[in-house]
Design brief:
Number of domains: 2
CATH class of the largest domain: Alpha Beta
Number of helices: 12
CATH architecture of the largest domain: 3-Layer(aba) Sandwich
Oligomer: single chain
CATH superfamily of the largest domain: Type I PLP-dependent aspartate aminotransferase-like (Major domain)
Bound molecules: pyridoxal-5'-phosphate
Strand order of the largest sheet: 1-9-8-5-4-2-3
Largest sheet: 7 strands, mixed
CATH topology of the largest domain: Aspartate Aminotransferase, domain 2
Radius of gyration: 21 Å
Shape: globular
Distance between the termini: 30 Å
Order of helices and strands: HHEHEHEHEHEEEEEHHHEEHHEH
Helix content: 40-55%
Length: 371
Amino acid sequence: MIPFVDLKAQYQSIKAEVDEAVLKTLENCSFVLGPEVAALEKEFAEYSGNTFAIGVNSGTSALHLGLLAAGIGPGDEVITVPHTFIASASAIQYTGAKVVFCDIDPVTFTMDPAALEAAITPRTKAIVPVHLYGQMADMDPIMAIARKHGLIVMEDAAQSHGAEYNGRRAGSIGDVAGFSFYPGKNMGAAGEAGMTVTGNADIDEKVRMLRDWGAKQKYHHEIIGYNMRMEGIQGAVLRVKMKYIEKWTELRREAARRYADLFAGTGVQIPVEVEGRRHVYHVYAIRTPDRQRWIEELTKAGVSTGIHYPFPLHELKAFEFLGYKHGQFPNAEKAAAEVLSLPMFPELTADQQEVVAKAVIRLQQETEANV
Ligand SMILES: *Cc1c(COP(=O)(O)O)cnc(C)c1O
C-alpha cells in the first residue's frame, strides 16, 4: 500500500539527531518552554520573514491567542472560509466573537476577496484567510480590503510553513499568524505544538502572557491567561526539523511537478499553483465528481487517499447555530464534495507516483466515458 504520509520514513532519516535532542532535554529537565523553545522561536520568526514568534501547545492555540492578543472578543465578527479544518473557525468562536463565513475561489480553494468584501458589516473586526493545502491566499487584495475597513488580518498558516506570495513568506503579511506543528503538518512535532508569529511587539507580549497564565513574571498574574506553553521536547525536536524543512519542501514541490507531468493532457483536475505563489504542497488535492468510487478503486490499487475536507464548516452540526443554509457558499460546497488528496510527502518516490497516476488516469477515463 502506498501510504498517504510516511512519518516513520522521516523519523528514520533523522533518528540520531532527534533522539539526541530528546535525550538532552530529558537530562536538562527543561520540560516546558526552556532554551530549546526560545531558540526555536528565534529561528522560526526568521524563517517566516517576521520579527516575533511565540511557541504554544498547538496550532489551534496559536490562532486562538493571536486573535485574543489582537483584541478580538465578544461583539466582534471575524470572517473566515468554510472550506478549511474546523480549527480556523473554532479559534474565532473561543474568543467569544461571531464566526462569519465567505466563499472561496474555486481554482485556489482560498478566500475569494470579492466574497470577503461582501461579508463585511459594521461589527467586522478581523479576517482569517487560510493558506489551504500549502498555497497562500490572495493576500494583496485581502490586505487592501482590511486596510480600507480598518480590520485585523490573522493568517491561518497551519498548512503553509515556507509558502510564499510574491516573495513574502506565510506569516509575514498579516498582523499576526498561527502555525501548526501537528505531526502530519509539513513541519511536525513529536506531539502537539504550534507557533504564533507577528511583527507587532504588543501582540508578541500579549501572546507570551496569555500562553503562560497571564504573567510576564512568575506569580505576577496581570490577566487571566491559559496554560498553552510549548513543551521543551517539542522545541528540541522542531529545532532539528528546522534544518530540513527547506529540503523537504523542495522534495514536495518536486513530487508535485512529477504528478503534473504524469497527469498532463489526461483531464485529471490537478492543483493550480498561481504565478508568484510558492505552494508547499501540504496536501495534493485533485478533484472528481465521482469521488467515492475513486477512493474504493484506488484502495484496491494499493493507493491511500484522504479528503480535506468532506464537509464545509457551515454545514457541520457544530456550527448549525450560526444559521447558514446549503447553497450559500457554492464554491466551498462543491470543493467539499469533489476534493480528493493523493499521497504527498517528501520521501514519496517516482515509482510510487507512477502507480498512483496510472490508477487515477484509468479512473478519469472511466468517469469521462460515463458522462
Ligand atoms: C492543523 C490545522 C489547524 C490546527 O492546528 P493544530 O496544531 O492541530 O491545533 C488550524 N488550521 C488549519 C488550516 C489546520 O490545517
